[in-house]
What does this fold into?
Amino acid sequence: MRRASLPILLLTFPTLGALPGCFKRTSDAVRPLTPDRVIGEPGLSPGQFSYPRCIASDGQALWVIDKAARVQRLDPSTGQVLAHFKMPDSENGKPTGITIAPGENGEQLLYIPDTHYYRVMIYKPPTTLGQPVEPISQFGSYGTGPGQFLFLTDVAVLMNDDNTKVLRLFVSEYGGNDRISIFEPTAPNQYAFVRSFGTFGPSASPDKVEFSRPQSMEIDAKRKRLIVADSCNHRIGVFDLDGNLVRWIGSPDSTGPGPTQFCYPYGLCLLPDATAVVAEFGNHRLHHINPDTGQSLGVYGVAGRDKGQLNSPWGVAFLDNHLYILDSGNHRILGQKLGELLSSAAPARTAPRLALGLNTVPPEVP
Amino acid sequence: MTDALANIPTTLAALQVGPIQFDTPVWLVLIPILWAAAVWMGRRSLAGLGNVTRWIALAVRLIVIALLAGAAAEPQWRNEAKDVALTVVLDSSQSVPLQSQQAIEQYIEAAKAGNKNEGDRLGIVTVGKDAFVQSLPTPSVSTVERQHVGVLDGTNLASGVRLAMSVAPPNAANRLLIASDGQENVGSVLAAAEAAKAAGIPIDVLLYKYKIEGEVMIDRLITPATARMGENIPLRVVMSATKPARGWLNITLNGEPVDLDPDSEKLGVPVELRAGVPNVFTVPVPARNAEAHEFKATFEPEVVGGRLVGDAIAENNSQMAVTFVSGEGRVLIVSDSPTESQQVVDALTQSKIASRRISPEQFPGSLREIASYDAVVMLNQASYAYSQAQQEAMRQYVHDSGGGLVMVGGPNAFGAGGWIGSPVEDALPIKLDPPQKRQMPRGALALVIHSVEIPEGVYLGKKVCEAAVNALSRLDYIGILESPGLPTWSHPMSVVGDGSAVKRSIQNMNFGDMPDFAPSLEMTLKGLLSVDAGQRHAIIISDGDPQAPSNALLQKFVDARIAISTIGVACHGASDQNTLKGIAEKTNGKFYNVAHDQLATLPQIFIKEAQTVKRSLIWEGPPFAPTITGVAETMRGIAGVPPIKGYVVTADREGLALVTMRGKENDPVAAQWQYGLGRTVAFMSDATTRWSPDWVAWSGFRAFWEQHVRWAMRPSGNANVRVVTQTEGDETIVTAYATDASNERLNFANFQARLAQPDGTAKDAEFRQVGPGRYEARVRTDQSGFYVLSANYRAPGAAEGQTIEGNIQAAITRPFADEYRTLEDNEPLMRQVAALTGGRVIEGNDPVRDDLWSRERLKMPVALRPIWLALALSAIGLFVMDVGVRRVRIDPALIAAAIRKAFRASEKVAGEQVDALKAARKQAQVKIAKRATGGDEVKSVKFEASKEQMSRPPSILSDAPAPIVTKSEKPAGSKDAPMNKQDAEGMSRLLKAKKRAQEDMKEE
It folds into this structure.
């Protein structure tokens, strides 16, 4: 009996030691990414990246712009370049956002906030390699006045119900003029400034919408919501489509690496179930949240250079049941099966709620 | 025979069997031997087994033997590569026409597109004067993109080949392709090809073929190395042409055109050139001043119909030469304002020393210009006012051209002026770092680094950080903060020391993107306040696009008296500049906006800013008279000096440096030494009323400065030495004709000579006497640019004990690179490289059929994985199986019967068990029901108390201790006495309970 006690003890203590981990709330743990696709490598050839900073999906392929000012369309399964072109001007700086959305007559268009040239460029996307590309429209000028821009970060396109008509463009910017401007069409691909909302600052007051580098936006047309990654305030803003604040998720005072905190949320994409995935530049991870409730549904990925690790991610896109994470510091895109990711982390019934701001407008749920 | 046996294991090569390679196959010989032994032994030992079993056991034994022998033979699993990596060494030098370069780029891209094997890789290395990797060999590379290509006025194919070999992937077969005209002028591509051959990498060559038909070039401009004031300097221009040509010859002197034909409207003279022969033109130009005369001859080709005739390359149409015109010794005085230097200028003028004062902006940019002065006096000068090249030229001026340097203090000089770590510090007779033991306030500098969106951003970032670190003293604090997502100290705030730790940190920096200035500045403030420093300062380098910090945060810097200087590099626009400007203005720092074409100024800006924390190196206090400590020529006749009120703290330099005056805590105040061919003097106080008001009125002021400057000045010499240079290929012959004052040839002179080269280095030159009064030195001059040769000479005079001393100088020029001399390709060299390495000469007609990724003559690399352990473990497993086969008899019929029986038995037993369980359940239910109604007291546990026991008062378990009684005192009857009534009742109850329990158990 005495002889048997030592092995039993040896087995027992590690088991007891592991118990707290078993009882840890699932949402407290950072879950690993298990990407099944790695697209790109450092370089300047087509299919290679030099610090890519924005990503978007057109439903069939991915669009990426990097610090070499190259706009590339990539096959998500093979990583092959399907089309590419270079921004006409890039000496001052390169775009940090890209959006694909239908234009006036339903055909897909590229909306590129040309960050350092103070304008929105609209392109008809090339479909083949070597196809010449010219902007079909552009608007904007340098300044802080109505309809003018400092550094543009993103464009969000609001369509009508059958996706045949552009109702509004939302354009975000920073640089002391941190706000979101609303434009409405006056003619095909021509837009006029309507109004803007937000100023520079950290305020969480519903009466005074303030941003600090609103880096990316998504529209949840079904719920009539505009979701904004307010990066330097380390929070996600949920607005109605007129720019009225619904709630802030996270706050400038609670930034950090915790599972209920954000650190420079840069990229944003909505999932079919109306939850959102946020790419946290500062925490080198993805954050799955429910914009309706402010719940944190899980955090994924750790900093590093290995296959499942991230280095300063700038964006994330959803396509074909995959999340495509723009792993900017590693000059690549990681493709992660959404199902696998979420099954690894069924959210706890009492998922932790992020620091919520005011809820001034009740959420619209169909 | 014995030797042959001994060599067996080593001479047997590795044996390959399918994908397995045996490194020591000699062990496989054991297999047939042991197999035979096993079969022979098995005949008896396995005889008792059944037929099948015997064969199985034997087979297992044989396999075990094979596996063990195989494991001993060091088996490796071979994984052979299937892909080819082609690295193109692309000659981007200026000798290759741009059209040819574009054609080859298109050819390579077409070849990659046409290559069928998707795993094949393409890498690009460009070659100019240096080689740079443009793309690492990967399958994705499909285009030729050029980033930083470096200087292109040279071709270093050898460097390109070596670099391409260094990036060759080990898991693919490698080929190199040199695309070049073969006109290398740096390194030896054949030597590099030998290395490629040794590595088994074939080099294919693709020749840029060209031949320039009509070309004119100036081969040489010959001028005398030295001349005297008023002489006519004869300029001989040697030109060559491949075809007869006409044009104009123009001459400039120190940048100003010389009118060669006053009667004509044009400044130059017309020239007509014959083909294939040297065309020599002689032009006399009068010497103007006692200074270096820099001549430039330029050929201007004839223009007919708007086109140049007979000339294709403009870069080789000019040549330069320098003549040093001797005269009275001259001193160059540098000061920020005339007031600063007025007293020293007056003193030198009174001493009949010719001088010229300039401001730092006017300081000569090259050694040859400085070399025309015999000494340079720098008054209160800060290092940031001088480029790195100027500082290096100053050091060379003293060390290699024999000039004199007098550095005079002031709050901007020495360590306080950022000269620590500069080339000039090497020339000074003191160390600019304060002594270790000296207790003085320290400086703390924080560098906040943000990546800037320019191709050379990382390189520049590291350079500026190093420049800032170099400008600090070893006692100061430095911290470097960058922001890869979140702000991080790349180098935590710590003492500079020898700088090695911080420089290692700089090399490891990532230059991450910074979204927001605020977190970085908060960390910076915390870091600066965490150290005990007298001066604190922060510098931000950024393109200005992070989010601006709040005014409240900036106010914290103001409150802590920490200024933030901001340097905007390649700012995206006015908004970025405003952010950086705002930070600087609000914290009393400075804002610098550095455009793309001003990047070279960045290190100087950092040095200037780092200087902010260097004020701690200044001592200022009540006036005191420095102590004269050394006996020196410079202090002749000076017994004492007036008081000073301040000086820059420095430290003694070991070696031959002589400290002539000392101040507080034994700090050096004046020092001097010989540095190479020249001399330097350092005076740590100043020459104005700021720190030395009593000196200006001092009677010894003139003598003090005259003696120090004269000591440092280059000796003019008392001989007559004329110098002539003649360049032959990569070599220049410098000839000195020396006569003494009586015009007699000067023999047996000893020369100490140095040659300063265009790349900033210098080397010794050796003069040999080759005739009466004639000395010759041969020096290699294969770099383009200016060389300055300086020599101090010493010879015995005519009189006994007399010595003749002096200094000579000569400038040698190679104004354009050899790159521009080539008029056709060097096909033989390229063919030689291909032949040496087993490569091919590719014509470049069809990019697909040329098959650049050809497997021909390539040995595919093999990755080997040892598998001996797997074989050994398998053998052990089979051995156990062997034992099983022999010891365990397997009878299938018996096994089947046993299984059937086991099934039947289990069914019966299961039925019985179910019945018993049902009965037990019924009994239990009855008992529970009784207990619930209180009908029977059934104790749930063996020692449960009854109701009666529970109702009794609690008994005291621990009474007062009984008295100890000895055996003799034992009361009578204590052992045999009958039990009292209480005890008897208790016993009776216990017996009853026992009986009842036994009955219960029986019932159950």
Q: What stands out?
A: Residues 439-594 of chain B form a domain with the Rossmann fold fold (CATH 3.40.50.410). Chain B has 24 helices and 47 strands. The radius of gyration of chain B is 47 Å.
